[in-house]
Amino acid sequence: MEIRLDRRAFVGLAAGSAAAAATTNIVVALDYPARPVRMIVGLAAGGPTDLVARTMAQSLSERMGNQFAVENRTGAGGTLATETVINATPDGYTLLFAGPTVTISASLYKKLGNVLEELAPVGIVARAPNIMVVTPSLPVKTVQEFIDYAKANPGQISFASSGVGASPHLSGAYFKYLAKIDMVHVPYRGSAAAYPDLMSGKVQLLFDNLGGPVLEMVRAGTLRPLGVTSGERWPLLPDVPAIAETVPGYEIYVWYAVFAPRNTPPDIIAALNTALKDAVADPRIVARFKADGGVPMSMTPGELAKFMADDASNWHRMVEAAGISAE
């Protein structure tokens, strides 16, 4: 049976709320959360990051006994959302749900500084690749055919992304660098806004997080997949090659994690981490993530801090190699 990560699916989480409350009694002593918690997302509603965030917000609401509400604050590749959380009171009531934008930003936005020093890692929930898709009207069916076409038509290919500084932007820019082709980047406020232009041929290429609407359009044949950004083929789409099969050294993953402002009390972070760990072990959430291309993950805050440092180093290497910058 196929399970899609969409808004209708969130309703199903409510059925398990009693069981979750019975198995995750972790906040009585803390009296946290005593009021609703904001979960800030730096990308537009309806995209993969937003949908994963809403799944986790619903699960945390059930497990922790108060509402976790997603708030979309878009702009500057997710950095506006990050700054909102950095500047929030460190009391556990304003959290950031984000992907690699927080590790990309220090390299891409020269004036921003190292945001990792201003955030407290809470927990990670999933990892997945991005996907490279083209409008069906483009006369290419493989990554190599796309590269050949781009070289024959320099500067005539426009590639869309969910915004400057987001992982799809870097995925396209690094591909452009390694493949030695000339493409024009067209950023949108979220990938959902790019789909109409991609389907009409106004832009020809999109890199997007695997999951959500893009996966449904690939399955429906509305968009043509050329490759995934993982180092090897991804289990959900075994017939779609890894870009690395054509472009050696190309490998990019995205992940989804929760952060709090620096100096948030450790007991609150520990309570949130436990709830996240329980959530990603829930068979319903595991099935949903896997059906949508993600691999559930769990880390302690300390493990996540090291993971973030390594990820930031990888993105820095790609940003420097491709000569990408933003203000």
**Number of helices in the DSSP assignment:** 12
Number of strands: 10
Instruction: Label the structural class.
Output: alpha/beta
Helical proportion? 25-40%
The string of secondary-structure elements, in order, is: HHEHEHEHEHEHEHEHEEHHEH
Radius of gyration: 19 Å
Mean pLDDT: 87
| General form | globular
Q: What proportion strand? A: 15-25%
Report on the biggest sheet. 10 strands, mixed
Distance between the termini: 46 Å
Task: Give an overview in words.
Helices cover 39% and strands 19% of the residues. It is built from 12 helices and 10 strands. The chain has helices at 7-10, 17-23, 48-64, 79-86, 101-108, 143-152, 167-179, 195-200, 212-220, 266-280, 283-291, 301-322; strands at residues 37-41, 68-72, 94-98, 119-134, 157-161, 183-187, 205-209, 224-228, 253-261, 295-296. Strands 1, 2, 3, 4, 5, 6, 7, 8, 9 and 10 form a 10-stranded mixed β-sheet that branches. The longest helix has 22 residues, at 301-322. It is globular. The N and C termini lie far apart (46 Å). Mean pLDDT is 87; it is low at 1-29.
